[in-house]
Amino acid sequence: MPASYRCPRCGQQVTTDMRFCPGCRSDLAVYQQQYQQQREQQRYQQPQQPHYPQHAYGGRPAYPVSRDETNSAMFCHLASLLGYLIPFSQLIIVLIIWSNNKDRSEFVREHSTEALNYQLSYLLYAFISGMAIFFLVGFLMLLALTIFDIIVSITGAMKASNGERYRYPLTIRFVK
């Protein structure tokens, strides 16, 4: 008994022994070949594990986020750039936002905690790079660290503005 499938052009039910579709009169030879290949692949596939959703930090949160929350979270990330004009201001600003919002908004708490951990890690890396200046490698390390800081801060601000989660790379988790 021939197998049946739907015509890809018009959707009418056809069988593998038909040469032309009775609905749209299209040649079914090409489609039959594709259909046979798909059936062969399905026949020899290994059984798959059930798909379980995974928690991803790049995705949207499961709760609604207001514009005020996204602005506060975005400013946590952009405070890093303010630190180039006023030293240590980035750490103070993030600490203030974190302490004011840690119990009010889950979204702002996540972003401010992440930004706080990044700022502490950045200060540690900058201190190590400053010590390495005596070995003439520190200048390159500080330059690379500055470029890295600008890129990840802007990326974090963009993710926060879109209401998405963001985790800084190479960050030590001092604060949970």
TrEMBL record:
Membrane topology: Multi-pass membrane protein
Main location: membrane
InterPro entries for the chain: MamF_MmsF (IPR019109)
Pfam family, one: MamF_MmsF
Transmembrane segments: 75-98, 122-152
Cellular location(s): Membrane
Keywords associated with the record: Membrane, Transmembrane, Transmembrane helix
Protein's name in the database: DUF4870 domain-containing protein
UniProt organism field: Candidatus Viridilinea halotolerans
